[in-house]
Structure to design on (760 residues):
């Protein structure tokens, strides 16, 4: 299509030619247009949306239940509680400066306490240092750490042996344990049995370490003793072994019972067949403690004997040393000075090896030669008693010549004592025989001499000790091993003389430890007198060999070493064979 | 050894949690009177978090276990209402969020944490949560009035020993 174009200036129409530019389109009948105009057909597919929920992990932040164990403590022990009616307000004496920094010693339940509550009862108590430093349990001196350990050991045990070496304070440890048990009302009646000479010492120690505990000594005539035994309100009764035998009927047959029985010097009951052992074993009691520095004096049988009191049948004769040591281990506490008292002044041994005087030597040779001949002539009738008699006779000659009174030992002793006295010190002289001490008396008089032995009445003995301690003019005390070897505190003495030697070094050690014990101000010099070429030298040799052997064996078991001479060894002193009747 | 009746004397609580690698966490709580005598002891069975707890609780797991789970359970078991509670493990302080009783961390050495407010309690170092500084005054006053003689660290020795003993006892029972 075209149309004339008009130029406005000329106003003359233009010719326009139209050209069709459309491209012809041929439409084929495909049917698509119809399809487009046709209504849509919709297919509906229905599906159910109810399906498995997606998997999830849930965690509740609630409080889970935790299993617990609870233990409410009983009312006691309250150590603040007083005992008896004799209560003193504790004095405010100052403790020793040892108490600068205290460790904490806890009560230790023994292995035979198995119930958890019972074990916790002990374990959760305050440390002993705290208890014993409380206002109402004042201690006159701060105990040593090992003494706290000893108290912790005894307190929890129904059967125990405190076997500390002499001088470490077994008495104080036992008293403190008793005191705590009484104040905690865990025990109400205690019986303490000790050798007769030690009764007053125990009483004195109770006054020092447990002044508020009423203590009664069983003594006096039979009526008074029976009355004392029967008093139910006396918390602590002290009796001696000898008296126990006299009062056995009232002790065993009158319905008496004790919460605790303590045996001091418990080696007294090592022989199971002895009357003492039988009576102590028959006492009705709940707890038993044995105190001894020498639980084994001659053989392991001694320990079996003590255990018959503590826990009958627990140890028996057939046990090997190792097995016995293991079984007894939890019941025995043994400490030695060299292990716990490292700062204690030393004990210096000086062996005075002397020749007999000519007079003594002549008497000695005669007695020995004749004696051996007599022993040999006795044949099968020879007993250990006969050998002992000869040994004792020879030992006495080693001390003094029976005819002239000559004594090389006494001469040496006098010389030594001159020095001791000149230095203002005090000395103890021990002998096996009171007769020997009698013979010294006059020659030593000038040194200010006191005597403490079997011939001194018991009632006077405390006075002798006090005088020796306090009187500056008294420098020497003559003591027999029997009377003076146990329980006495003579730590103010710096010199000990063993004029003759005891059969058993344990007894000698006990004697020496009267001076070398806690509180000793300086070293203690021990002079052991020994005459050369005599029976004394032979006995010493045998004992030294035994000491070495026992040390090897007993160091394996942890048990203390102590030993004497066997029958074989006694006969061997004179090269005699043990007769068959003695070997049984 | 029978249990006593209601406990009313002033007391102090000692709380600890011990980690036994083979068992898990064991909590212990000891209540002492002011002279140090034990009144109550409680301990938990071993608590061990599972893997999920470890992941989800993240860094809050330890205070959650020590403070919320173990300590709160133990304190809930006790009859005695102590004047204050001492702990020797810092995460156990978290129990303070659940109890009204002041709780303090006691140690030999000063705690080094921004979250804690440190102070001296006698010869011992003590600490409370920094946002609970008011506890310091309360604890110090109660300690001076009632327990000045008490060594606040010593009871933890007892507590640890007792937990060990209880754990040994449980092991023995399990073996029997």
């Amino acid at each position: 299509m075209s149309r004339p174009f008009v130029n406005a200036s000329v106003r003359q129409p233009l010719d326009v030619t139209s050209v069709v530019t459309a491209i012809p389109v041929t439409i084929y009948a495909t049917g698509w247009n119809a399809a487009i105009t046709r209504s849509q057909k919709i297919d509906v597919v229905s599906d159910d949306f109810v399906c498995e929920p997606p998997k999830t992990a849930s965690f509740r932040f609630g409080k889970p239940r935790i299993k617990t164990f609870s233990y409410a403590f009983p009312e006691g022990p309250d150590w603040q509680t007083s005992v008896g009616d004799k209560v003193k307000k504790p004095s405010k004496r100052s403790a020793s400066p040892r108490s600068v920094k205290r460790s904490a010693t806890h009560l230790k339940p023994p292995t035979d306490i198995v119930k958890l509550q019972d074990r916790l009862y002990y374990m959760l108590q305050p440390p002993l240092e705290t208890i014993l430093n409380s206002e109402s349990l004042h201690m006159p001196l701060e105990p040593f750490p090992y003494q706290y350990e000893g108290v912790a050991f005894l307190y929890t045990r129904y059967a125990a042996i405190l076997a500390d070496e002499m001088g470490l304070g077994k008495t104080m440890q036992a008293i403190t344990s008793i005191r705590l048990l009484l104040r905690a009302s865990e025990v109400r009646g205690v019986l303490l049995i000790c050798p007769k000479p030690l009764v007053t010492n125990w009483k004195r120690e109770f006054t020092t370490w447990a002044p508020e505990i009423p203590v009664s000594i069983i003594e006096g005539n039979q009526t008074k003793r029976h009355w004392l035994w029967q008093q139910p309100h006396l918390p602590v009764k002290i009796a001696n072994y000898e008296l126990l035998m006299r009062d056995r009927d009232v002790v065993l047959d009158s319905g008496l019972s004790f919460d605790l029985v303590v045996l001091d010097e418990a080696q007294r009951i090592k022989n199971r067949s002895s009357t003492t052992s039988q009576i102590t074993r028959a006492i009705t009691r709940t707890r038993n403690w044995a105190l001894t520095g020498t639980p084994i004096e001659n053989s392991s049988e001694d320990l079996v004997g003590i255990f018959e009191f503590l826990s009958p049948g627990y140890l028996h004769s057939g046990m090997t040393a190792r097995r016995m040591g293991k079984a007894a281990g939890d019941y025995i506490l043994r400490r030695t000075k060299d292990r716990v008292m490292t700062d204690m002044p030393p004990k210096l041994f000086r062996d005075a090896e002397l020749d007999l005087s000519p007079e003594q030597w002549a008497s000695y040779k005669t007695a020995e030669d004749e004696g051996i001949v007599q022993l040999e002539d006795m044949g099968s009738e020879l007993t250990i008693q006969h050998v002992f008699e000869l040994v004792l006779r020879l030992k006495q000659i080693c001390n003094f010549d029976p005819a002239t009174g000559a004594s090389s030992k006494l001469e040496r002793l006098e010389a030594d004592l001159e020095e001791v006295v000149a230095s203002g010190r005090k000395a103890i002289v021990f002998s096996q025989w009171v007769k020997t001490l009698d013979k010294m008396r006059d020659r030593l008089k000038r040194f200010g001499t006191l005597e403490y032995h079997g011939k001194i009445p018991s009632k006077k003995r405390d006075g002798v000790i006090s005088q020796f301690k306090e009187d500056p003019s008294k420098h020497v005390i003559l003591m027999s091993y029997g009377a003076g070897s146990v329980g006495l505190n003579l730590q103010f003495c710096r010199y000990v003389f063993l004029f003759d030697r005891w059969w058993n070094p344990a007894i000698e050690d006990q004697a020496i430890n009267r001076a070398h014990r806690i509180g000793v101000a300086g070293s203690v010099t021990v002079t052991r007198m020994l005459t050369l070429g005599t029976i004394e030298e032979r006995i010493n040799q045998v004992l030294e060999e035994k000491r070495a052997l026992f040390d090897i064996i007993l160091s394996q078991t942890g048990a203390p070493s102590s030993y004497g001479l066997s029958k074989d060894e006694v006969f061997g002193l004179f090269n005699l064979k043990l007769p068959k009747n003695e070997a049984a | 050894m029978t249990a006593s009746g209601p406990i009313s004397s002033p007391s102090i609580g000692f709380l600890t949690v011990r980690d036994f690698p083979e068992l898990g966490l064991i909590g212990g709580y000891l209540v002492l009177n002011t002279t140090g005598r034990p009144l109550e002891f409680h301990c938990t069975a071993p608590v061990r978090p599972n893997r999920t707890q470890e992941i989800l609780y993240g860094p809050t797991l330890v205070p959650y276990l020590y403070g919320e789970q173990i300590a709160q359970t133990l304190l809930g078991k006790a009859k005695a209402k102590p004047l204050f509670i001492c702990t020797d493990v810092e995460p156990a302080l978290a129990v303070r969020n659940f109890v009204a009783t002041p709780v303090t961390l006691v140690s030999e050495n000063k705690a080094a944490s921004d979250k804690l407010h440190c102070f001296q309690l006698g010869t011992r170092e003590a600490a409370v949560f920094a946002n609970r500084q008011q506890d310091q005054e309360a604890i110090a006053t109660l300690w001076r009035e009632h327990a000045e003689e008490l060594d606040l660290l010593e009871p933890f020795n007892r507590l640890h020993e007792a937990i060990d003993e209880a754990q040994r006892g449980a092991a023995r029972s399990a073996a029997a």
User: Anything to note?
Assistant: Residues 154-175 of chain B form the longest helix (22 residues). Chain B is about 35% helix and 25% strand.
